[in-house]
Amino acid sequence: MMVTVKKLAVVTGGSKGIGRAVCIELAKAGYDIVVNYRSDEQGAAETLRAVIEQGAGGKTMRFDVSNRDETQEAVREIAESYESVDVLVNNAGIHADGLFVMMPHEDWDAVIDTTLRGFYNVTRPLLEKMIFQKHGSIVSISSVAALIGNRGQANYAAAKAGLIGASRALASEVARLGVRVNVVAPGLIETEMIKGAPIENIKTLIPMARTGKPEEVAKVVRFLCSDDASYMTGQVVSVNGGMF
């Protein structure tokens, strides 16, 4: 049965960190949320509760964005169940840091597959629905690593840089079809990803001399999804405290 909602946003990797913050911000903006997760069922449920607290609706959906068959089935269900899909936020990502010369191919493949294969697997079918609707906004979460490169993160930097290139190319293809495609590139944000990192040393490279909060990234995502950003597409917005 087709479900009619006010506005719908699909957020991958929504069980914690930036993904959770994005879900909450979009819920505040009036979107119902599909919260994707791969393994953290409890975290996804907590995100959904936070979404509902904002007066929005939604559901959690478990699928691994890097798995084409799994994702295809899940995205088909979303497309068939909801009258429209207004926003897609490609946030799912992992890291497996290590010097390139010693990096096993499994670490390279896992990071590239989650970010880039995931981008393709989720975006392509939902883009078809957005084109049919003649409106939609896609925002992908890249990283400052894509712009400056970080020692020990060749796989992560490559994946996130590829996301920028793919998004800019896609933006040029669908700009006249009512779909906007943008990228947010966070810097050092207070999430599980930075556990174990030499934070105090890294802060010396940040002009604002502090780490960012997931909510600070999420507010930029919310802006890019809104009508206030109606003339923005193919852009990369850095949220990094001035770190270049």
Structure description:
With 244 residues, the protein is an alpha/beta fold. The longest helix has 29 residues, at 105-133. The model has no long low-confidence stretch (mean pLDDT 94). Helices cover 45% and strands 15% of the residues. The relative contact order is 0.15. It contains eight helices and seven strands; from the N terminus they run E-H-E-H-E-H-E-H-E-H-H-E-H-H-E. The chain has helices spanning 17-28, 41-53, 68-81, 105-133, 144-148, 154-174, 199-203, 214-225; strands spanning 8-11, 32-37, 58-62, 87-90, 136-141, 179-186, 236-239. It has one domain (8-239): Rossmann fold. It starts with 7 loop residues before the first strand and ends in a 5-residue tail after the last strand. Strands 3-2-1-4-5-6-7 form a seven-stranded parallel β-sheet, with helices on both faces.
Provide a short characterization of the protein structure:
The protein has a seven-stranded parallel β-sheet with strand order 3-2-1-4-5-6-7, with helices on both faces. The chain contains eight helices and seven strands, in the order E-H-E-H-E-H-E-H-E-H-H-E-H-H-E. Helix 3 packs parallel to helix 4.
Describe the secondary structure blueprint for this structure.
Blueprint: E1 8-11, H1 17-28, E2 32-37, H2 41-53, E3 58-62, H3 68-81, E4 87-90, H4 105-133, E5 136-141, H5 144-148, H6 154-174, E6 179-186, H7 199-203, H8 214-225, E7 236-239
Parallel strand pairs: 1-2, 1-4, 2-3, 4-5, 5-6, 6-7
Helix pairs in contact: 1-2, 1-8, 3-4, 4-6
